[in-house]
Amino acid sequence: MLTQIYNGHVLTPEGWINGGSVIISDGRIEEVTRNSHILDKADETIDAQGMHVVPGGIELHCHGGGGSDFMEGTEEAFRTAVAAHMSHGTTAIFPTLSSSTLPMIEAACETCQRLMREPGTPIMGLHLEGPYFNPRKAGAQMPEIIRIPDPAEYTHVVEDYDCVRRWDVAPELPGAVEMGRYITSKGIVAAIGHTAAEYPDVEAAYAAGYSLATHFYNAMPGFHNVREYKHAGTVESVYLMENMAVEMITDGIHVPIPILRLIHKIKGVERTALITDALAVSASDSDKAFDPRVIIEDGVCKLSDRSALAGSIATMDRLLRTAVCMAGIPLQDAVRMASETPARIMGIYDRKGSIQRGKDADILLLTPDIELHAVYSMGQLVK
């Protein structure tokens, strides 16, 4: 089947095409053209009416949605959460587990592996956020589950399952550097997070292969004093690691708007990814969180004692609106940080992350006000 999206403001790696067309065949992009002439051979034509035609969002860090959490480990929970986020502009996703027991990790791995084998799946692999974290920076992670890196445990997970694509670790923990070398040798992205790391720790982690900072500015220290002496925190250290990428929760709450602008200015489009860090309550009609310790207040998830934020209720379309309409980031940059950069970080840019010939037809139509009009996954209408 040949589908033509025509009369669009199309974002390509070379820039915008006004009045452009995207030709889709068998779930992939066959051609991107400046010609909006309707093709005689097209089986389906879609008039974009001048709207922005951009690549679908790639979610690096998402715990759930639609009332389901990936920690449940079931096929039903995975399908529900993924479908909820797809309806809001996510067309590829790395389901995320908070710090979990080994049986919970195994259950999620088995489900993720099975779903990844389905043709046209939006599930790209599993993201393990923990459990090897600094308990002083636990945030909303379950403190009783947090532990130091266990080589027997993590090698079992990596060797016995082929779905893990990213693992987040506090780099100052004993064995964290060795773990980073090991997982990166297996093609897994190593990220630093929930950490009290200072410059020497970040520098050592970077040298060992850690290439990403988890929800930048959250659950990590900035510039601070230790008694009378000043220390560079994790934040400043990550800025100084030139090629270390960052992800930022772009809900306008977890990271203040001026800081979103600062990250964009310093790290730039090529090193910054937009994420939701969404919990099960996101994209849901329910206001009940999966974790009983969590409440929903002021448009965000918090621990009930209000000691920490606990994740967001954001979706991909909200990330784009926040970046553009609140932070003043150019739409082209915001879209690239939601699609191209995540794809490059996770090594899937050969098939995802941009509107180019031969790539998967994961496409969003956005109104001039950055409202989501339509979502296409592998050329099929989702919303």
Quick take:
The chain is α/β, with parallel strands linked by helices. The chain is built from ten helices and 23 strands. It has two domains: 2-53 and 361-381, Urease, subunit C, domain 1; 56-346, TIM Barrel (Alpha-Beta Barrel).
Radius of gyration from the CA trace?
Answer: 20 Å
CATH architecture of the largest domain: Alpha-Beta Barrel
Classified in CATH, the superfamily of the largest domain is Metal-dependent hydrolases
Query: How would you classify the helix and strand content by structural class?
Result: alpha/beta
Q: What's the number of helices? A: 10
Query: What is the CATH class designation of the largest domain?
Result: Alpha Beta
Span of the ends, CA to CA: 19 Å
Strand content: 25-35%
How does this model look, in words?
Helix content is 26%, strand content 28%. It is of the alpha/beta class. It has 2 domains: 2-53 and 361-381, Urease, subunit C, domain 1, CATH 2.30.40; 56-346, Metal-dependent hydrolases (TIM Barrel). Strands 1, 2, 3, 4, 5, 21, 22 and 23 form an 8-stranded mixed β-sheet that branches. Strand 2 and strand 3 (28-33) form a beta hairpin. Helix 8 packs antiparallel against helix 9. The longest helix is centred in the first third of the chain and has 15 residues, at 102-116. It is globular and about 70 Å long.
